[in-house]
Specification:
With 200 residues, this protein is mostly helical. 77% of the residues lie in helices and 0% in strands. It has helices spanning 13-37, 40-47, 51-58, 61-84, 90-107, 109-117, 119-128, 130-148, 156-171, 182-198. It comes from Streptomyces fuscichromogenes.
């Protein structure tokens, strides 16, 4: 499994604010026009900076898309962990963690709106970044699995299996198993995933 990109030295507060502002604009444009038509030049125009500034701070178009997607993944991870931590029962934590993650991905503004405006290129872009997205998804899934089962001996293996399954559910919802609602996802997890992870 590919490692997540290593983190550079923390930027200064001013640099971080500037990058955040550019990523916010990139997010808005991505939602408006989709992956295919996202342009660093348009980001620069909307931000009121020159093209070189965008490339210096964010990199190429591919780098920008990755940064936006990874930021959204981290935001959803934090939201899911906060909700999972409120539950006491390990099986509930697994079932809710699974359901919340799938629903969050399906309802995420980047994925849902770019699929709406440019379905083929959105699928191609997400599939093209499968290794990176799955690597992040495994780490994300492992976080809430360990909240449910702190003594799980090798959390990365079930996390990898679940992350691949969730990736499929999000991108191909019109194939079995048909799990469209949060309650259906929780019931599926309680029946099939919890016994696999917790035993019994």
């Amino acid at each position: 499994m590919p490692a997540l990109p290593s983190k550079p030295s923390p930027p200064s507060s001013a640099d971080a604010d500037a990058e955040t502002a550019l990523l916010d604009i990139a997010l808005d444009l991505l939602i408006e026009v989709g992956f295919r038509w996202l342009s660093p030049d348009d980001i620069a125009r909307r931000a009121g900076v020159n093209r070189a500034t965008v490339y210096r701070r964010l990199g190429s178009k591919q780098d920008i898309v990755r940064a936006v997607v990874m930021r959204e993944i981290r935001r959803e991870r934090d939201r899911a962990l906060e909700q999972v931590e409120r539950l006491a029962d390990p099986a509930d934590r697994i079932a809710y963690g699974f359901a919340l993650t799938v629903m969050a991905a399906r309802n995420n503004q980047v994925l849902s709106k770019t699929l709406a405006v440019d379905t083929p290129n959105t699928r191609e872009s997400v599939t093209g970044e499968t290794a990176l997205v799955l690597a992040a998804g495994v780490e994300f899934t492992k976080d809430w699995l360990l909240k449910a089962a702190p003594n799980l001996p090798d959390a990365e293996q079930p996390a990898g299996l679940i992350a691949r399954f969730m990736h499929s559910l999000v991108l191909t919802p019109d194939a079995p198993p048909y799990l469209t609602s949060e309650s259906e996802l929780r019931e599926f997890a309680a029946r099939w995933l919890c016994p696999m992870i917790l035993g019994g």
